[in-house]
Amino acid sequence: MNKVLLGWVILLTATSSGWAANGSGTLDISVRDLNGKPIAEATVYAIYSGRVGSRFPRFRADSAGRLVMPGLLPGSYEIHAYKETEGYPDTFFAFYPTSNKKAWQVVNVIADRTTRVILELGPKYAKLKLTVKNEQGDWVRASVNFKRPDQPYPLTTGAGELLVPPIPFRFEIVANGYQVWKSKLLNPRPNEALEVTVRLIRLPNQEAKRF
């Protein structure tokens, strides 16, 4: 059984056990870019406001960027979609949203009715390839903390290839046994590819962890 089918089994089991006992509704979701072109096989999920922490399993849209979610409890849902391989990250996280108010939506599901939802993702985010080494050129295991001036919530991840928003942001690199490295303010363009190699300076009498 594939992951998409397994997710539907979990969801339908929940609704059949009384979660939607008073009648269920359906979401018909289409995912597009800013030019109206379907985003094939985008990942889609819904957050039900009636239950804390209810973040549905993720489902895959079809080749036309469409996904139908039946058997939903009536109420308010927050709908998100993303496809990182094409430059569209998960806007659920505070580091990623932009001024595009159509990238995710809050909709009401009504019993015995189908609610149409159109998500327009974009602009495409920039791509950052980040390499962290020491003064001898050895790879260093490090944490990367990204911060936006307009968001109080940072994003912490590892080095490598990742999407970054096409707006101003900074990041700092923290590694065991090394001085903290801080970037200048970056402001990449949509879909721009950035490559940054950082050389960390070892703290006195410290041994850094290597790969």
Question: What's the structural blueprint in terms of helices and strands?
Answer:
Blueprint (H helix, E strand, L loop, with lengths): L2 H17 L5 E9 L9 E6 L10 E2 L5 E7 L2 E8 L22 E5 L4 E8 L4 E9 L8 E5 L7 E4 L1 E5 L5 E5 L6 E2 L10 E8 L11
Parallel strand pairs: 1-7, 8-14
Antiparallel strand pairs: 1-4, 2-3, 2-5, 5-6, 8-11, 9-10, 9-12, 12-13
Task: Please explain how this structure is put together.
It is a single chain. The chain is mostly beta strands. It is built from 1 helix and 14 strands; from the N terminus they run αββββββββββββββ. The radius of gyration is 21 Å and the shape is elongated. Mean pLDDT is 86; it is low at 1-21.
Strand content: 35-45%
Mean pLDDT: 86
**What is the CATH fold-level name of the largest domain?**
Immunoglobulin-like
Instruction: State the helicity in percent bands.
Output: under 10%
Number of helices: 1
- Which descriptor suits the 3D outline? elongated
**Sheet with the most strands, sense and barrel status:** 4 strands, antiparallel
Strand arrangement within the widest β-sheet reads 3-2-5-6
Assembly state of the chains shown: single chain
Topology pattern, helix = H, strand = E: HEEEEEEEEEEEEEE
Terminal CA distance: 36 Å
Return the domain count.
Answer: 2
CATH class of the largest domain: Mainly Beta
